[in-house]
Design goal:
220 residues, alpha/beta, 6-stranded mixed sheet, 28% strand
Length: 220
């Protein structure tokens, strides 16, 4: 298994009230799988994704990623894993408007120890994979919504991650651009990329290999 969660619990304090978001979540994902996690707004699916990405920690439970106990690692070691092994794709794209396509895709390498020659090769390979060779010097304002999300995916791919975590990756796209992005994810999956995608849309989830449902803080 690439990753395994055991009895993950997470709650937040809202005023004087504890809101339980995750209640004993268990999850195993093998290398090369494409898994969707469905749930309504506020169901805890994004919180789960942040825990998987090492951006948040649970209150209780165990999390193993590539045989490493993520919850006993130092902040420094978790940061190294995020920089080298995890690619993130968000609904809001999160590109820097003043940078062109290549410069935006290079951003993860600010926290990555890969040598310059390898970085350049991986960046241009990622651009090739998402079909944006003709847009390398364009800035986000000069791109369509679908192209912007392709840049975000290329940014996640550039470090050759062990896992891509996608949070509502088609949420801000029209139908055609959404289909284009989902077909791209399927293409990546077929080449061996492991993907976990959070969505509220069954039509989006149907593109994945396996669909799980977050209901009342439990993954089913």
């Amino acid at each position: 298994m690439l990753l395994e969660l055991r009895q993950i619990e997470k709650s937040f304090l809202l005023g004087n009230t504890h809101i339980s978001v995750l209640q004993g979540v268990n999850l195993s994902v093998a290398k090369g799988e494409f898994v969707s996690i469905m749930g309504t707004s506020g169901s805890g699916k994004s919180t789960l994704l942040y825990i998987l990405g090492g951006l948040d920690t649970p209150d209780h439970g165990e999390y193993y990623f590539d045989e490493k106990n993520m919850l006993t690692l130092s902040d420094r070691d978790r940061s190294w894993i995020r920089a080298h092994w995890l690619g993130f794709v968000f609904q809001t794209f999160d590109l820097l408007p003043e940078l062109d396509v290549v410069e935006n895709i290079c951003l993860p390498f600010l926290y990555n120890s890969i040598v310059r020659e390898t970085k350049d090769r991986q960046v241009f390979e990622a651009i090739e994979k998402v079909g944006l060779n003709h847009r390398k010097k364009h800035r986000p304002a000069e791109l369509s919504g679908g192209e912007i999300q392709r840049v975000a995916i290329a940014r996640a791919l550039a470090i050759n991650p062990k896992l891509i975590l996608a949070d509502e990756p088609t949420g801000n796209l029209d139908k055609q651009n959404s289909l284009d992005i989902l077909h791209l994810f399927n293409k990546l999956h077929k080449t061996g990329t492991t993907i976990i995608m959070v969505t509220h849309d069954k039509n989006v989830a149907d593109f994945s290999q396996r669909t799980l449902h977050m209901i009342d803080g439990v993954l089913k």
